[in-house]
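question for whoever is on the cluster today: can someone run the full assembly for these? two chains, 790 residues total. i dont have access anymore since they changed the login thing
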Amino acid sequence: MKKKLLSTLLCGVLTASMLAGCGSVETADEPATEDAAEEVAEDAAEETEEAAEETEEATEDAAEGEEGEAEPEAVTTEGDPNGTHMEMWSFVEAHNTFYAKMLEKWNEANPDRTIEITFTTYPYGDMHQKLLMSLQTGEGAPDICDVEMGQVPNVYEGLDTWLYPLDDSMAPYADDMLASRLAAYQGSDGKQYGAPFHVGATVMYYNMARLEEAGITQEDVDAVVTWDDYTALGEKYLEATGNEEGKYFTSVDTGGADWLWIAMAEYGDDWTGGFDGTANVQLDSVRNMLTMQQDWLNSGFAEVSPDGHIDLEAGFQNILDGNIVSFPKAMWYMSRFINYMPEEEGNWYITKCPVFEEGQNCSVGIGGTGTVVTQQSVDAQLAADFLCYAKMSPEGETMIWNDLGFDVCNTSLWDDETFAHDESNQYNTFFRNYPYDVLNSISDQIGTIMTVKISPTINEYVCNTTLNEILEEGMDVDEALQELQDAIDLEQ
Amino acid sequence: MKVKKFLFSQKTAPYIFALPFIISFLVFWVYPLISAFVMSFQDIGAITVDWVGFKNYGKLLKDKVFHTAMINSFEYMVFTCALLIPFPMLYAVLMDGNLVKAKGVWKALLYLPALTSVVISGTLFRLMFSEYKTGQMNVLMAMLGLPAIKWLKTKWTSEIALLLLCCWRWTGVNTLYFMSGLKSIDKSLYESADIDGATGWQKFKFITIPLIKPTTIYVLTISIYAGLAMFLESFMLWAGNDSPKNIGLTIVGYLYKRGIQKDDMGYACTVGVVLLLIALVINFIQLWLNGSFKKEER
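^ ran it for u. tokens below:
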């Protein structure tokens, strides 16, 4: 009798532990990190329109849907019902809408290799957690999946046992793609696992309308080469406006490392040390940037961005209020103007970032979504071919620019008049100059900071602690960097 | 036949009735506990699992972020215990006496916050304590003629926000515990105290406090655990697990960060095991000081 009891118990334990396994996926709440917020907010406005029509379908699909673990926000099935069926996940609905449009084009162009894809949009945290879990267990992963830059080190850990290399599929387009951007999505074995959406090149945004009121012309702005020039220009502006309370030339971030990335790219540094090196944050580039920012704060030239960085509601309001009139940010920030600050149309001018010493590179690629094909795919090669077509071909890139407003990686389009100067594109008309003209002028100056295993650790400590210590509390730069280095050394 | 006999036997029946609990206890408590303990000695990578001995524990000793999290949780625990026992006890006594009118209304008002989700209340508190001039707390500050404060960016102001959220939410629940404790006190004790001419304070001190001691110990024990295990409140207050200089990071928050956000289950389990040990030790000491262990002998 005892044996029976024991066996019942064991059976119970077994079944329940399986259940427990499933359940743990649920615990992945929504650790919406800054990186995520960046990407997610990026397309929020575009989403809303489509969301309305798609919710109906979504609820239908969701009802019969999977095991009811992490709740998907939207599920749609598109493409040729007779084609190969695939699954695709994203954390931004607008991305899925884009892929669906490209899928139609693909099926038209490849009648013998048609595909049907079920697109699922999950919340940022849930999706990456679910993806990791399914890759680890070797079961349940989608064929194609969006991976946000900050999550790349986690997802790439399994290299080609988890992911299918895209090298062959992207061959037709590889030469036109910006090499430094592709490199950001390579694994430590040198294979290409992710397809990028955008360059995310950093540029300088100037509120020309307000600068002109202060007697500063576009020529003055164009004449800025170094950060010293930039500081001088700002001082001139502040003086002309009478050093008004609450008005600054720019704002510096405590919740994001963009400024430091720019500094590193200018000096050709990379604090991660790449795949083989060790991370070192005690770099002159970082030190110079932080010291300069500290001086700016002390002199009333700059303020600390409300809520930590400029890519948040508070940041948009700060810009609308004219509290700051210039800032460096990746080109995808253009969509924030369209979506959150439409009244600023015609006011802003985009140009390249200042550098520390003349002759330095002036830009760096920031943020992004690398889309991967998993080894669990029913037809990995077909999935990879479609993915590269969607994200790298001129047709796909044109749609990325028009629909999503990203600075595309396919450089062959950058000086294509019909693409870069297309007046029907809202981004081309919103600003005082054509964004791609700026991109063209810096095309050989866009650096890369690698995203490797240590990256999340560095980024987290910098944004939580170091930048607050230096910019909010005025701590000595060297001291703060030493503390940061100690924290990182613990992990490597 | 055999099955029937088995099911109807008097000896097995208690086991069968207790089975659901035993199974869930084994599956959801014992198994994860042992498994977490084992995992705390491992480095769990994407594909490989390596046995690393005490390396995780050694790292924990040097990990400043963990130390910050531990101090935060500990402080939070101490303050919540200091606030969430005397005040609910006072409210319970007041509501048990004849001084208060409309007791039902007060009970409902005190208990209401416990019914709201932390997600919602945390978000509301975040907005109230926002650093802008338009946040409620800063509006209050302006009324008092004081400058606006970046509430959630410095340690002690954010501590105020956290404790306020916690008290707002849990006072009602603890009051309820104390009220049920008070109900079990024999009224004749108070009557005889009245005859002896005891004052209200004396009755409170010599009758109420000693007789609701079991309730107090219970509330203290769960408060210690709840204080150390706090996570969601700070997660919602800072809209995520990241706060400036980690002022809002708790032990469980750090566990979540390591295990889920950074996918480092081995190290996260080490954090969990240490949390368990700390909670056990503190509660053991507390129960021992209260004399809870002696009762059985008496």
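summary bc i know u wont read the tokens: The two ends of chain A are 55 Å apart (CA to CA). Chain A touches chain B at residues 1, 4-5, 8-9, 12-13, 16-17, 20, 27-29, 31-34, 129, 132, 135-136, 154, 157-158, 161-162, 254, 306-308, 314, 456-457, 460-461, 463-465, 468-469, 472, 486-487, 490 (CB under 8 Å).
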